[in-house]
Amino acid sequence: MIQIYPDKLHNKLAEKLNKCYILYGSNLLFIKESKAAIYKVSKNQGFTERFTILLDHKTDWQEIFSIFKEFSLFSRKKILFLILPEQGPNIVIKKKLIVLIELLHSDIILILQIPRLTKRQENEAWYKTICTHSILVVCQELERRAVPFWITSRAKKLNLTLDDNSNKLLCYYYEGNLLALAQTLDKCAILWPNSYLTSTHIKQVIHNAACFNPFDWINSLFLGNSQRALRILRQVQTTDSDSVILLRILQNELLVLVKLKRKMLYMPLPILFDQYHVWQKRRLLLNHALQRLDTTKLTHIFTLLTRIELLLKEEHNPSVWIELEALTLTFSEPEFPFSF
């Protein structure tokens, strides 16, 4: 299987149009632009009929198979875009995908959007079968440290140059939302074509469009970055997110941390990471948290979690979010008063 990034897809499409593409990840901008690029080249080669289907337990597979098997002198070439479930395909979907891949022919292009994959799923027969016929386009979210370089590159394509302060402003106000960031850069290109932009320009067009999820908050907690964690928590609160979900995810992550801390005394950490199915990308973070948070600190954190749990039983208690802020500070301030 060939694996490429979205910025290299145009070159690959210019070489040859493949029968199957996997858009792997959940970055909305990368998925949108990759799909558009495939559609554009496909249309030029006669693929004018498009179908989009979200796969779930109610999927009509006969309808999908009929799209593949429909042959006539007058039928048009087709593009079938299938979106897999966020949690991964069930047994039925896996079996049907294997059959579907075998039915691929020159008059149809299959695009699969796969939001996420576990290591176990990557080793399963359905995925290996798909990979033998596919080009995989990595559409995952960018690491924070990569965003400034992406902004510079994107601006260059629009004949724009940004100073450092402009870049930092864009990183801050559009964190986790490349789609909105790209739209803002497009707007800049219209307002100030072929220009060198400073923070004065950027302040005229920016708005707070940052998007965070519970794991962004938890990652900042584990790193001890209270300022960033508070910002994320307050942003999440404005989106009417459920505090219960936030708390449950944190509880699960902390329980794993406690188990690791106990067992690492007599078992190597890499083996424990494998046992608890910790993703490679999270291992460095958890290792840092294990070194930083001692048993006493974790006990205090669980005490505060219990207090928040009791508050949650009181419907719509506004003090829950205040307590979550106190919890956030507890992760980084060794002498923070727990009676706050």
From TrEMBL:
Keywords: DNA replication, DNA-directed DNA polymerase, Nucleotidyltransferase, Transferase. One of its GO terms (biological process) is DNA-templated DNA replication. Coiled coil: none annotated. It is an enzyme of class 2 (transferase). One of its GO terms (cellular component) is DNA polymerase III complex. InterPro entries: DNA_pol3_clamp-load_cplx_C (IPR008921), DNA_pol3_delt_C (IPR032780), DNA_pol3_delta_N (IPR010372), DNA_polIII_delta (IPR005790), P-loop_NTPase (IPR027417). Residues 214-331 form the DNA polymerase III subunit delta C-terminal domain. Gene3D superfamilies: 1.10.8.60, 1.20.272.10, P-loop containing nucleotide triphosphate hydrolases. Signal peptide: none annotated. The keyword Nucleotidyltransferase applies. One of its GO terms (molecular function) is DNA binding. DNA polymerase III contains a core (composed of alpha, epsilon and theta chains) that associates with a tau subunit. This core dimerizes to form the POLIII' complex. PolIII' associates with the gamma complex (composed of gamma, delta, delta', psi and chi chains) and with the beta chain to form the complete DNA polymerase III complex. This is DNA polymerase III subunit delta. It comes from Candidatus Erwinia haradaeae. The lineage of its organism: Bacteria, Pseudomonadati, Pseudomonadota, Gammaproteobacteria, Enterobacterales.
